[in-house]
Amino acid sequence: MFRVCRRYCGADAVGLGIPGAEAMPFLVKPLLAAMANALFPARCLGCRQLFHRQAARAKEDGSEKSDAGRALADYFCPVCSGQWTAVASPLCSRCGMVFKSRVGPDHFCGRCLERPGTFTRARAAGAYDGTLQLAIQALKFKGHTHLANPLGRLLYATYRHYWLDGDIDLIAPVPLHRRRFRRRGFNQALLLVKAWPLSGEVVMVRDLLARNRPTPPQTGLDRRQRRINIKNAFGVSRPGESVGKRVLLVDDVLTTGATAEACATALLKDGAKRVDVLTLARA
Ligand SMILES: [Zn+2]
Ligand SMILES: [Zn+2]
Asked: Which protein residues have their CB within 5 A of the ion that is ligand 1?
């Protein structure tokens, strides 16, 4: 999914839109890309203004927040690319909720102290707002599956930021029920992790979990209703596969954590050693 020129320069070929771009000599491809970019500006998925992709890249400042700007710069203008909130400490050491107070170290939030739950810790790239929210919604509900590429890169960068080599054995995308999968045509969680450049020790198992029954969308339900709605909705499709393993569960958004808790329950019941959660956004 990371479409790069493998033969010559290794540069990103996304957005070039020229058949056979990977086979072009290294001087020709960037030149054609610059010409295509100058002649055919992209339309921002946020504000709908036309913009030049190279200009968006030039605005990067090397900060953590620019990771998302860089990831989304082919699809959002320089202004929109920066309009989102990166997750930053202080946050809940377990569920990853960002505290309103911006001073002090990470610590457990009141809810996690009261009810520790089943997964060990959850982390996200950003808050579910601004451009990140728009991009996730465009991917999920408008079929802009090409956004899985930059969003997947952002998610991978977040994974590498919070987890060290050897921390995780298995990566499992949260599954959709087959009926919803048929309707949508893809599982966004799987699209996000499919192209991760994983080392041999970490394995992505696309069907580690299965959704046993269809559940109404969680949107509009409160915390308790979400928990009831999703209870026992997940099981393992490969019994014994997760025994003794540290599993990283991946999804697009974590809201109350009810879905992640239900998935973690199924995995721990199967014998997983621990379950962590990574999402693009934290609502
Ligand atoms: Zn814009
Ligand atoms: Zn918490």
From this structure: 44, 46-47, 77, 80
Ligand nearest to the CA of 48: 1
Instruction: Indicate whether 14 pLDDT > 50.
Output: no
Using the predicted structure, report yes or no on whether residue 254 has a pLDDT greater than 90.
Answer: yes
Indicate whether 139 pLDDT > 90: yes
Structure token digits, residue 239:
């019994």
Cα of 138 vs centre of ligand 1, distance in Å, is: 14
The pLDDT value given to residue 172: 97
Residue type, 167: D
Distance 126 CA to ligand 2 centre (A): 16
Query: Which residues surround the ion ligand 2 when the cut-off is CB under 5 Å?
Result: 92, 94-95, 97, 109, 112
Instruction: Delineate the domains of the chain, giving CATH numbers in brackets.
Output: 1-40 (no CATH), 43-83 (no CATH), 110-282 (3.40.50)
Residue carrying structure tokens 């991917």: 139
Nearest to 253, CA basis, from 226, 233, 231: 226
d(CA 144, CA 218): 22
The ligand that comes nearest to the alpha carbon of residue 91 is 2
36: phi then psi, degrees, rounded to nearest 5: -60, -40
Residue-wise pLDDT tens digits, 188-235: 999 999 999 998 799 999 999 999 887 877 777 787 888 777 788 899
Q: What number of other Cβ atoms are within 10 A of residue 47's Cβ?
A: 14
- Specify which residues 107 forms β-bridges with: 92
Q: What average pLDDT is seen over the chain? A: 84
Q: Which of 263, 270, 252 is nearest to 227 (CA)?
A: 263
CA quadruple 216, 219, 221, 224: dihedral, nearest 10? 80
Distance from C-alpha of 21 to C-alpha of 106, rounded to nearest angstrom: 47
Q: Is the peptide bond before 19 cis (omega within 30 degrees of 0)?
A: no
In sequence order, what are the residues at sequence separation of 6 or more whose Cβ sits closer than 8 angstroms to the Cβ of residue 235? 209, 210, 212, 266
